[in-house]
Amino acid sequence: MHINRLYLATAHNQSRALISSPIAQRLGRVTGGFVLFFLVTLLSSFSALAHAFEGPTGLMVDLLEKTDVVWRDGYPTQLTLAEMPTAIERLQIAEIRSSRPCFSWIVPSLGKNTRQTAWQLQLASSMACFSQDAKEAPEMLWDSGKVVDQESTARAYSAQKPLDGGSIYYWRVRFWNQEDQPSDWSAIKAFKTAKDCQDYGISRYPLTKLTNQPVASHDIDGGQFFDFGRASFGQLFVDIDAKHGDVALVRMGERVKDGAVDRRPAGTTRFWEYRLELLPGRHVYAIKTRVDKRNSSGAAFLLPDYIGEVMPFRYAEIEIISSPSETADSILPAKETTILGVTRETVVYPFDETAALFHCDNDDLNRVWDLCKYSIAATTFAGVYLDGDRERIPYEGDALLNQLSHYCVDREYSLARYSLDYLVFHPTWPTEWNLQTVQMAWFDYLYTGDSRAIAQLYDDLRAKSLVALAEENGLISTRKGKLTKEVLDSIHFKGNGFRDIVDWPHKGLAGNDNAESGETDGFVFCDFNVVVNSYHFFALNSMRRFAQILGKTEDEKFFADQIAKLQQSFHETFFDASRGVYRDGETTDHASLHGNMFPLAFGLTPSENVASVTEFVESRGMRCSVYGAQFLLDAAYQGENGAYGLERMTAQDLRGWLNMLRVGSTISLEAWDDCYKPNQDWNHAWGAAPANIIPRKLVGVEPLAPGCAEIQIKPQIANLTEVVSVVPTIRGSVEIKVSQELDKKNVYRLQVRIPGNVVATVYLPYTDDSDTLLIDGRPAKEVVDGIEHVGAFWKIPKIGSDVWTFERIAP
Questions:
Q1: Please, which pLDDT band fits residue 17 given cuts at 50, 70 and 90?
Q2: Of 93, 202, 395, 449, which is most buried with the most CB atoms under 10 A?
Q3: What is the pLDDT of residues 163-182, one digit of tens each?
């Protein structure tokens, strides 16, 4: 039996104790935790021997795992897909919208370096096809036979006849390992195609519901106040036993003031009051949420009818207004209206809150992680990545950050795929955000290994790279006369005001009239913009890869030439060698945080300039928005300045995530504080950058090859002494445990569990060439070839699946 988690309990989850106690009672005071770790590793090894060929798990069709779940108005039921016709209720499922879907699965780790060398997939219209006892079983619709192929993600259905629409299908898969031995078959998985399915369609889940009870309550004048602990998008139900004629005033909101719901909250945080005429006796009342015209018209996303309107709220209060008693002369005791309870029905896209984990010895960072992880789940309420509650409109700037964070907190990729497709055809006005669409497409492919989106959208993505705006020097500009109607039509932009943004808000816009220079660090907008061209560089690199993947050799060469031209002109135009920093544009000497963090974050800064640019970025502090913080932190870790990244994520000032918690929010804010954007709302996922920065950069788990076939594990934990993390990938979870002895400064220990069919490059901090490196207690060079010193790290390549322990002992 394979152990999927170090922290799960009993036979296949013994090591929950490893991280369930306050970081294993401080990692079992270090020693005890390691004893338990090795006991679990030993148990895993024995289990692997006993069941050497466990079949694949985590089966996905078109990036969806819960294809066989049937929901009733948002709640999962016991029904199977085949039983749906027997139900009279309104039901929802995740329909597969492709008649030629792609399949993915997790290859279990059966010991060191488990690899898939081949696979076989069977698909049928009946479960009976898989029964060996069936005498007249229907014919299998598709049996791939043994396919020699190492990939376990995005394997396409390749039978001659496409799948029929509106039909139920069943499938299973097995794999051959590196010794050419077959595994057991996986469990059989069911899915249903949409009636209007086509060759390639984007599949996604229905919205789902959860019920929450208050975590605290207290009496107020005439009623009760309730706190649900966290805000969510939902609806309120109240349980009241009333006497005839009484009325309840029901109030809901995101903020609290003097122990009651804040009735005049700042910005666009929410407060609603409802008058409820009570029926005699006990009843549960559904409080119908009012519709806000601003977030329910125009480009705003509407919710399906089985969900209804929702609002973000954490607090509720009920005040009873008593009517004169009509039974004053009754011989019975007078009845009093009693509030029996409240329930919140929360709406979310399906989310596995157990898929990701992070805990360390810094409680502030743990709180930031919890805030940001929850923010990603809570803001999925509309089934697309939105900008928040005020507008409920998809923007590329929000979606990119949401995408990266969602990948890091759940094994879920369909919402990002849907949002990408939507934004390709419904772009917003900023230059950089249209370029971000190409970034989204790259990350979609990198994390899933599924190339269908880039194939389907290739021409659109090519246009959105804005290569049509390139001058002879390779740089692009929206101010040199090339931003024509034809160019705007090619990127599907139908509005007005297409222009550069850098960051948001600018001074004097969106209520930002503070004494500072908006959130752009005084950026000077010129014809050639260093930030725009940094994005263009990323887009060109993505398009070159896309052309290579799709066999477009002429385009591949074209984009490679454009990259070379841009790199040379970029450095000549923007870099000030005397200061070692980038200028904002070609006609200014002003150097901003943004003008330096974007080239550094996107790998455009030559290695010889990384130190000076990194130093400048650090000197500017957090002079950017919560959105810009994503790229500041990316730049810090790209410059191997993990200490500064940690410092910014745990900062106590207004420009930090702890301030979001301090002001009372439980979902990341649209801005650092009301003073930076007075009309802000309290539910913007673009303010949750640590949800991806912590797993990707601090813990250091990132894909190097499409579908996470190869990953990087490069922790940059700065002065943390204990870190435990689980990072989901499409191939299974990567588990990390890092510890170091700062007082002695000589022992650094990294323990990892790598999923099957994954190869990792592992990094350990470098002290000097006399460092002792051990892998599983043996000299590292006896275990792995090709170890080298790169920057501030030892680089250890080609580490396969299973549990490994790495140690660096400094002299």
A1: very low
A2: 395
A3: 999 999 999 999 999 999 99
